[in-house]
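> forwarded from #structure-qc
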């Protein structure tokens, strides 16, 4: 009996070692691993494409780009979303919004809660009653 157990154990080890070396079992594992890797890669690519498509569709359409700023702006000039020059907003004027749709504040002021707050160096006017956001 003891010889049979020893022979059986020896055969078991030989079978495991030969399976690992011959590639019969490892071929199936390699194919599975390649499938999982490819699926993960394709999934990541699809997610990236969807995110880029979402950003692109949300961007406003610009009819003109890089237009020069108008002359004689009371509070200076700034660039809008399409890189066109526009007149800046002054103290107390509405600003901000989605993609700066209401404009940017001029020098010396900052947009707080949708209103330009601070003092303009152009005419000395100030606004400090910004609402609590």
């Amino acid at each position: 009996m003891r010889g049979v157990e020893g022979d059986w154990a020896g055969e078991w080890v030989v079978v495991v070692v030969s399976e690992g070396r011959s590639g019969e079992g490892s071929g199936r594992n390699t194919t599975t691993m390649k499938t999982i890797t490819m699926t993960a890669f394709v999934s990541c690519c699809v997610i990236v494409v969807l995110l880029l498509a979402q950003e692109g569709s949300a961007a406003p359409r610009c009819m003109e780009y890089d237009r020069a700023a108008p002359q004689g702006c009371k509070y200076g000039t700034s660039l809008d979303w399409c890189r066109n020059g526009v007149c800046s907003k002054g103290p107390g004027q509405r600003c901000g919004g989605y993609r700066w749709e209401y404009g940017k504040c001029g020098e010396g002021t900052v947009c707080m809660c949708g209103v330009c707050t601070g003092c303009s160096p152009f005419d000395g006017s100030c606004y400090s009653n910004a609402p609590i956001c």
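QC bot note: The two ends are 87 Å apart (CA to CA). Confidence is low (pLDDT under 50) at residues 1-23.
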